[in-house]
Amino acid sequence: MEPTSRVRDMGRFFRLSGRWTRRQKGRFYRNSLMLILLIASIPGLITGIVMYGLVVNQMEKEFNQMHQNQIENRARNVDDQLAYLEMTLSHWAFEPRFGNALRTLDFVYFFKETQEIVTTLYVLQGSHPLIQSAQLYLREPQPILFNREYNELKDEAQFEAYDRYLSMGNHVYWTDWVSGQQETKQSLNSHPSLLHTGASDALVLVHKIPGESVNPFGALIITLDNQKIASLLKTLTPYDEGLTFLMDAEGNTLITGNTDVGAKDPAFEQQLKEAVALHKDSHSFLLKYEDQTYSVSSGSLSRIDADWTYVSAAPLTSVTSPVKLVSKIIVIASIGSLVLGLLLSWFASRRIYSPVARMVHLLTPGRNEAPAGVKLDEFQLLEQHWNELTSDRLTAHRQLQEQLPHLRDSFVLQLVQGHLYAYNEQDLRRRMTNLGFEVEGQQFLLLQMYFTGHVTLRERLGSRDTGLITFAAVNIIEEVAKGYFSQISVMNFHDLSSAMLIMAPEEHSLKPQALLWGEELMEVIHRTLKMQVTVVVSRPAATLQELPSLFVEMEQAVVYRSVEAGSQILDLDDEQCFNQTEGATYPLGLERDFIQALRLGKRDEAERGMEQFLTEVTRTDSTEFQVQQMMLQLLGSIQHVMLQTGVIPYQLFGGCNMYERLSSIREPAQMMQWMKEKVIRPYMQEIELRSQEPLKQVVERTMQYIDDNYSNDISLEACADLEQMTPYALSKAFKQISGMNFIDYLTQVRMETAKKLLRETSMKINDVASAVGYQHSYFNRIFKKQEGSTPSQYRDQWFTS
């Protein structure tokens, strides 16, 4: 090819590549730009959400909490002021000038005393800013009212109105009833000194006089300033919006704060009362009313004669208003960061697009329209891909070789256990071949091994290391099988049992060779692990699909092994191995003796009876199946005895299926150990606990008698007579139940009481000794013996320490 034509072709190639790049630029550019925009937007969104969630919500909670604390503090202030009014009025009510002498005093003649009473009422009225007026009403010697002056009540309506204060409430009480509001307009005009300026819901504090008398003849009446009380209540809602009021225990409104909501909408106040009644256990909650959420706080104000409840409702927007600006700033900052991220993403995508387009062109050479023969960049890309694929193939092959043994064992295990029933024979052989097995022209033989004698290894390996023992046995099986067979697969069941699949050519005599291998395996297992092994040999199989049924048949045949024959081989083709021998008969006499010992609570005798029973059932050539059946029958007899004695087996064994547990044990020695630990001993412990319950009650009564009568002369014989038993029996039971002797417990009770009297009283030593039931001389000796010092020294050490 001429150089000019080569240059022409190269130029055409790059022009075509450029056109491909421009054609593809739109879709790839949009995709990359959208991805970068999404990635850049996520941090801004997360930042905004996190800032809003952590900062705004936390600030909102803190402001709400501060609002609640503020209300509680102000409620305490209201409570303190009302309590101060109560205390002030009680102080004046007990003054001598308001005593019984007022009953007979001539107020006109004794002008000076009358003037002092008026002055005192002025002082009382000016003692607190909440007081609007202070009045003294006397029913005796005649209806008299002291307000700003001395007034004799001539009008019957006035007399009845003020006399009502003496019939209402306790000796000191609060009321919202104002006598001046019930008077007629004409009476008020004729007696302007009796006029009250309070609203209809003014609070009045009444203290009947004399203060110490049960038959009062007058009352000190304090009327509070409505406007000031309303202003004080308004502090419970530190905002221009909301509602605050006081109500009594019956839910009646006593006074309302100077707010707008309650006046404009009485239904809101009623709904607040209902909500507070529903939230008795919560002092603060949220209330939804007419598309507005209110933060409601309530609490109790304990007054001298009743409990009042204050209710404060403020719009939640007012409570959280300080955080609104912060919320807006965070939202604006989040939006700004998002917009900045979008701009930077667009700029970055523009900058990185050019090398990306070149990479796409190199990795997809088949899409360009370059003429054949011009494949410079394409060969480089293919070479790179080829090297990568070769490296990946070698790595995958190495990993496959490392995992192949596990895959082989796993596949064979699934095949033998019947999990691959959906595959036909051809599929199974193909999969076996892929795993490295040679299956064409082969016959198959299954062997299953059960290891017994585990009880003898407990001292070396422990009772729960069955997996470790099985692992060691499997390794031995593989080592011994290498000298006999060319293809094997050993399966570890981790429960003192395993299986092995043997594959050999069809013309080989596989069964005799397997029997010889079994003989050598039994010898090696016994010599190495000091255990016995039962080898079950199946019939040879020509197909893989026969193996699951053979495995099930082998599992059923193992119960025919003799429990006393040690290691043995069971051949499915040898019918003599599975002929039912008569074996041992069920030893009813030994069962009767064992049950009798169990019923009498003789633990050692019952365990010996269990050993004799198991020895008898295994004495002859009994199979594992026969031994298990007789042991299951014995377990049923034991549970029958338990039911007869009032012990429920289901509760005693914690709901465990004991028959299933016993059926899973193969060795007689393990059966005996299991029966002792899991059946006999729990039952004996339950019987012992039940037999000790009456004695426990006797000891508890005796200890209570000692605690109540330690200062008297107490003896073991006297306590035994009370319980109608011998002193020896009581002493033995006391020691067994309480862990200490009778006299030791009595001495301990007396010594503890004596030490308490020495520490907390100034009683003489002789009196302390008598108080705890000792003579003085004997008390000193026994106290020094018990505490290491005399009573006097003990008292001195206590007060000097």
Question: Please, could you describe this protein's structure?
Answer:
Helix content is 58%, strand content 13%. With 801 residues, the protein is an alpha+beta fold. The chain has five domains: 94-224, 2-Layer Sandwich (Beta-Lactamase); 229-319, 2-Layer Sandwich (Beta-Lactamase); 404-578, Reverse transcriptase/Diguanylate cyclase domain (Alpha-Beta Plaits, 2-Layer Sandwich), CATH 3.30.70; 588-688; 693-800, Orthogonal Bundle (Arc Repressor Mutant, subunit A). A six-stranded antiparallel β-sheet has the order 3-2-1-6-5-4, sandwiched between helices. A five-stranded antiparallel β-sheet has the order 8-7-11-10-9, with helices on both faces. Helix 18 runs parallel beside helix 21 (668-709) and helix 21 crosses helix 23 (727-738). The protein is flat, with a radius of gyration of 51 Å. The protein starts with a helix and ends with a helix. 25% of the residues are buried. Mean pLDDT is 77; it is low at 1-7, 13-25, 182-200 and 367-379. Keywords: DNA-binding, Membrane, Transcription, Transcription regulation, Transmembrane, Transmembrane helix. Residues 700-797 form the HTH araC/xylS-type domain. This is AraC-like DNA-binding protein.
